Amino acid sequence: MRGGASTIDIRLLGPFTVSVGGRSLPLTSSRQRALLGTLALSAGRLVSIDALARAVWGEEPPERIRGSLQTYVMRLRKHLGDEAVVTEQDGYRLDIDPSVVDALRFLRLLDSAAEQGDTVKERELLGEALQLWAGSPLEGVGSAVIVEDWAPLLTERYLFAVERRIDLDADVAPDSDLAAELTDLVAQHPLRESLWERLVRVLARSGRRAEALARYAKLRELLADELGVEPGARLRRLHAELLNADSEPAPAPQVAEVPRQLPFDVASFTGRDAELAQLDRFLADRQGRSTAIAVIEGTAGVGKTSLAVHWAHLVRDQFPDGQLFLDLRGHSAATPMTPDAALARILRAVGVAAETIPSTVEERSAMLRSRLAEARMLMLLDNAHDANQVRPLLPGSGNLVVVTSRNQLRGLVAREGAHRLPLRSFDTADATALLAGSVGYERLQAEPDAVAELAELCGRLPLALALAGERASRFSELSIAGIVDELRDQRVRLDTLRDPQDAGTDLRAAFSWSYNALRPAAARMFRLLGLHPAMDIGLPAAAVLGGTSVREARELLDQLASAHLINQPRTDRYQFHDLLRVYAAELSEQEDDATESEVAMRRLLDWYLCALAEANQLVRPDLVADGVVLPVSTGPKMSFSDHAETIDWYVTERPTLVALVSEAAQRGWSASAWKLAWLLRGLFAERHDIDDWIVSAEVAVRSVREAGDLLGLQYAANNLGSAYLRAARTDTALEALEEGRKAAADSGGSVVTAAILSNLAGAYYQRKEYEKAYRYGTESVLIARERGQKTYVAHALLNISANCIGLERFEEAAEHARGAFEAFDSLSDRYHAALSLGNVGEALAGAGKNDEAIETCVRALSLLRELDGGGGGADYGTIDILITLGRVLVQTGELTEGAEKWAEALAVCQRLGDPRTEDLLSLLASLPPAV
Predict the structure, then answer these.
(1) Which of 277, 415, 836, 911 has CA atoms 20 to 30 A from the CA of 553?
(2) Listing from the earlier edge strand, what are the strands of the sheet with 46-48?
(3) For residue 881, how many other CB atoms are within 10 A of its CB?
(4) CA–CA distance from 243 to each of 193, 196, 202, 212, 400 (Å)?
């Protein structure tokens, strides 16, 4: 599209207008204008779905954001051409030359003017930019969000450009013309003192001293009335000069040489829209107040310096007295810069002769504050080590200081009121956009799954993504999937993500500068955390892993969080960045004794086993059976006040618990693997986490099989068979349960034998082999009663009742189901008691006792809905009962009510991904069309 982009002209520096091929384009919809305006202001760059939704609908987006946006985009394409708006994976891109958007052309011209050393060329570029200004910017754009985000920036850049052009016009334009222009400007912007200062100077210079004094008096009155303040120091000095002058006019302002030290701004800067907006709001809030201090903090490679430099370039025009940059070397191979050395550099940069710089830090700091007291200067202090390094460098009021650091600089926030901006890894959209900058969207779109995995393997860390993208661009014949294969091996990942010729891109070295600054105890905790198999860890678990008290662990984790070696998303919860976890694991292998690491992991596994056992007291107490021998755990004892708290803990810890099953198996600790998987099954079932249930159970079976552990195999195979049954994978369930039954027969049986036989009954029931299922269920009841296993008796009776229904022995089915209900009720297992009542209802329906069946099913549903355990367990139990209730209602002529029950069951199936969905669709389709 860029080739034909010259036919499009978008004007935003005044009334919003669009023309295509010289013809004005009418956009009557405010949302369509907002969409085009947002895309135009980012011409040539991806705009995310979230950003577009915010601009178009504000805080009240529609339910189907993507669908609604597609509609507006389709309409735009009709006006601009099919190729003008490009669909990307996570948003849209207006594929036009940015220069056809007047606001972007305006900003580019101002940037070019600021970089000129030749004042004639600078004035020419300023004039060209100012000709584009056509009134109030973004008028009619249709979005308060766009106006709020962009209008202050554009207006500030415009006013600064006008002021700079007026300064440059001092020797070439008549003072009368400048005075007239400035008079108009102060009327439009009455609180902008820099315009009043120029007006007073021009009037005084042209011999109109009385008018100049009158203008000052008017400003003073205005500021007192509006803000309750006096004019600034520069204007007060100018006023004093005018009062003391005899006949000499005030000298014309000199176009002084100012420091412009900002590093090169990356042309392809990607993402960070939210952070840039936050910085803009911070600066706007602090205008005219004390020195504004922004601290951009984050781990190595997250893009702190890039963001700081990019934003500094965006706002530099607001700081006409200069921009300073200083690398404080807080985390690098070099020694951190001392405050006195840093002050010497800054003072020389602002024009202080070297021989006049004082010798002490205190004196140098005082000189800096005096020197910059009336200035508006931007100071970027990069790579700070701590607050003590930064504090002496802070200038006087009216200036902006941007600090980047890997440490949190909490003292600077607490004492000096600095604004903290923590940087995290990119989101998926920005990570993809960064990779696209290296390899192009076409190549990424060809391998979307590999791209997504590549971003995750890089932890969506900007530096790692940039290195991966460079590698992909260097080896164009290598697929993205090929690079992913290289990076999957965490032992070589940090070696792959580096440039051997550029130490600044070595992630391992960058991480080491933060690690080496840690105290020994914190460094040890960091290494041991690398053993943890998940990205997220709680305080108690960290204390167990480190072998410390909870209090000591909190102090050590706080040190790591302060250094951004870990994140702390909420109180007593911590997260590793993936690449930092790889680095920590490397260090643990290199520096820690293998025995210490093994003991630490044993502590962690034993602690989680005991915590799960405690959790099951409120979920499935029968799972903590005689055969499940628990270890003696050290560390804080877990306790849960109620069922809801138990489920909340499980939801938080689930990724860790699932990962620990595999970790135990890989280490050859098969007993820990099968016990973890076994104790998780009740929680998996209640939350309907079937995939995790199956994966964990499969790992446990393989582990005990390899270890030759027949007792463990009985538990693990029964667990796996139960998971397959829940997923309706009947054949694989039978294979697993038969393996468990054989292990029981070979070993003389165990406490879990009755459970295996009961589940075999359930499996054959799913295959509709009711006689065989009935035999297994009866055998299970006999063994369970003989062993005094009330829970297994209840489950077996429930299965027998289901098989009797299949055999159409309805009276016997009802009897067994009532027995199951009484058994579960005595065990306070309300969930399975409700399922037993459901079987009673189904049996009564089969016997033609429809009224009793309806009453019983309604009672069963009521019991399930009273349960507050959450997570979908109770909902799952309603499906068969609703099917039975719907069937009875349809048979009795209540077609509408029956259809409602089936539709309710269908909704639960669809939400949980249950295989009975197809059966319900068929039942609903069998009803007359009018229902």
Answers:
(1) 415
(2) 46-48, 91-94, 85-88
(3) 26
(4) 19, 17, 16, 10, 33
Largest CA distance in the chain: 120
Helix, strand or coil, per DSSP, at residue 897: helix
Q: Are 544 and 602 in contact (CB under 8 A)?
A: no
For helices 710-726 and 730-747, angle between their N-to-C axes, nearest 10 degrees: 160
Cα 578 from Cα 581, distance rounded (Å) = 5
Q: Are 550 and 638 in contact (CB under 8 A)?
A: no
First to last CA, the chain: 53
pLDDT surpasses 70 at 222: yes
684's enclosing H/E stretch is helix 670-687
Can you read off the two tokens belonging to residue 141? 């754009």
Residue type, 261: Q
Going by C-beta distance under 8 Å and a sequence separation of 6 or more, which residues neighbour residue 381?
Answer: 326, 328, 342, 390, 393, 401, 402, 403, 404
The secondary structure element, H or E, covering residue 217 is: helix 209-226
**pLDDT tens, position by position, 368-413:** 888 887 788 899 999 898 888 899 999 877 789 999 998 888 888 8
CA–CA gap between residue 667 and residue 317 (Å, rounded): 60
Nearest to 40 by CA among 74, 17, 70, 63: 17
And the tokens for 13? 């520096």
Q: Is 21 helix (H, G, I), strand (E, B) or coil?
A: coil
Do residues 700 and 678 lie in contact, with contact meaning Cβ atoms separated by under 8 Å? yes
Copy the structure tokens of residue 381: 């202090």
Q: Take residue 733 and report the two structure tokens written for it.
A: 């369930």
Residue listed under structure tokens 């009240």: 60
710-726 vs 690-707: helix axis angle to the nearest 10?
Answer: 160
Structure tokens given for 200: 């007073």
Determine what percent of the chain falls in helix, strand and coil, rounding each to the nearest 5.
65, 5, 30
| Amino acid letter, residue 518 | L
- Length, in residues, of the chain: 931
Angle CA(21)–CA(27)–CA(32) in degrees, nearest 5? 115
CA distance 89 to 442: 11
Per the listing, tokens 């009216």 go with: 398
Per DSSP, helices labelled H in 535-640 are 539-546, 550-562, 578-591, 594-616
DSSP classification of residue 330: S
The residues pairing with 293 across neighbouring beta strands, listed in sequence order, are 401
Better-scored residue on pLDDT, 703 or 559: 703
Q: What is the pLDDT of residues 644-688, one digit of tens each?
A: 899 999 999 999 999 999 999 999 999 999 999 999 999 999 888
Question: Which tokens go with 472?
Answer: 């992909």
Residue 622 DSSP code:
G
Q: Token pair of 320, please?
A: 């006409």
Amino acid of residue 616 = N
